[in-house]
Amino acid sequence: MTWRMHHMNIPAHDIEASAEFYENVLGMTPSTPPFRSDYDPGRKIGWFETEGSAQLHLAKPDPNFAQRNGMHVNPTVNGHVAIEVDDLDAVKERLRERGLYFADPGNWALRDYRQIYFLDPSMNCVEVNQRL
Fold first, then answer.
1. SS3 30
2. CB 1 within 8 A of CB 87
């Protein structure tokens, strides 16, 4: 199975101020996320391209995000790391074999990707996704 860093998501209480910092202070290039059209009402997310294929996402922490979206893992509160794989079903099977819970929203937030979310032993949120 191939693993590569897809993105790092960090919490940002003020998306506009944080986006301005990453763009104008650090010189990163903002881009438009390939979300569903209804995914980000009210601009709660900032998105930046980096060299190579990894991205930086800024997300406003939303304590009710998981509940509203039928998930038991909230990827917005403390941020998350996202890893892209070529066999998401194999990852899910590894988690099941160990009795580990994962939220499986399917093709949910990003167009052309399936994703799952789970917690590592230190309670960090991990997203694993696969291009459709």
1. strand
2. yes
CA 12, CA 59: separation in Å to the nearest integer? Answer: 6
pTM of the full structure? 0.72
Separation between Cα atoms, residue 54 and residue 119, nearest integer Å: 21
| DSSP label of 121 | T
pLDDT (tens digit per residue) in 69-92? 888 888 888 888 888 899 999 999
What is residue 129's three-state secondary structure?
strand
Pairing state of beta strands 103-106 and 113-119?
antiparallel
Q: What angle do CA 49, 66, 82 make, to 5 degrees?
A: 30
Q: What is the pLDDT of residues 22-32, one digit of tens each?
A: 888 767 888 87
